[in-house]
Amino acid sequence: MAISLPLVFTAPRRGRPPTHLADLSPADRKTAVTAAGQPAFRADQLARHYFGNLTRDPAEMTDLPANGRAEFVDAVLPELLTEVRSLACDDGDTRKTLWRAHDGTLIESVLMRYPDRITLCVSSQAGCGMACPFCATGQGGLQRNLSTGEIVEQVRLAARAARDGAMGEPGRLSNIVFMGMGEPLANYKRVMEAVRLITAPAPHGLGISARSVTVSTVGLVPAIEKLTAEGLPVRLAVSLHTPDDELRDTLVPVNDRWKIDEVLTAARTYADTTGRRVSIEYALIRDVNDQPWRADLLGRLLRERLGQLVHVNLIPLNPTPGSEWDASPRPVQDEFVRRVRAAGVTCTVRDTRGQEIAAACGQLAAAEK
């Protein structure tokens, strides 16, 4: 039985973020620089500082004329995000930061250190309009899309924090997952622009491998088809959460528009085109979608539709305020994994990082208090 929840695909209008270097094409950057009273070649200097040196601090840009330097930098590299607070857990290996944008909009991003990598979970929207009832972000509704600059700025700040030892030993930000606040493919143009800047080599981008970038979606089929045509070797993650349409209509309301068959068809085309395995995200909820028959059905369905080009990422449900749902007991979880694997589909359980600071999957709500 489906519940009636609003679907929002167009962000409400709020104050537009100031135009930033990251919002502009190379030609437009030069135009912006000359409009700020400097010769066009300064655009490349600013890009080297921002993308290469990870700074927007005029004091660090000693190759620029001292007279009027701060005003010039502020004009082309305006401050987009101000840190409200950061919280850490997991012995300092997980760090959630609350940011305030120019118009007071609040967003969150999560930086995570693992033995072999440092990963940033980045937000693409303030809030989310997909209305999934088990997700705190979705229940808060959509405030607005983030600009390209606001998305890239989260990554730049995280890369600088990792480099400067904010999580202990200095390290390099290596992986980006668009699994923070929002539905990335509902902010398609800006997310794609951000991905290109994140993956472009310095000084024109942040130089993170496209194969280390994951773009998540609840299943916006036309946008998955557009992503396929982009030719970017990023990983696609599909939040499926159940193998049957009846339950998915409730858990993922967008399923009213694009059913599982259509979503998996688009995912298979993406996998065949890019050669990248598709990640199927599955939040395991006690007595809701954790039945053995659903594990069997999930395994068979994915084996038939995606073959070897799929991996199931099982996510024990993270608690959210006021939710009546909970994670499945460990024995139920283990049996679910066993049954999916028995069907010939790889399946692993996601590390539940950041629960105690509400930084885990589905918990980001960007609350000041």
From TrEMBL:
Family: Belongs to the radical SAM superfamily. RlmN family.
Name of the molecule in the record: Probable dual-specificity RNA methyltransferase RlmN
Record bears the keyword rRNA processing: yes
Entry's cofactor comment: Binds 1 [4Fe-4S] cluster. The cluster is coordinated with 3 cysteines and an exchangeable S-adenosyl-L-methionine.
GO cellular component, one term: cytoplasm
Keyword Cytoplasm in annotation: yes
Domain named Radical SAM core: residues: 114-356
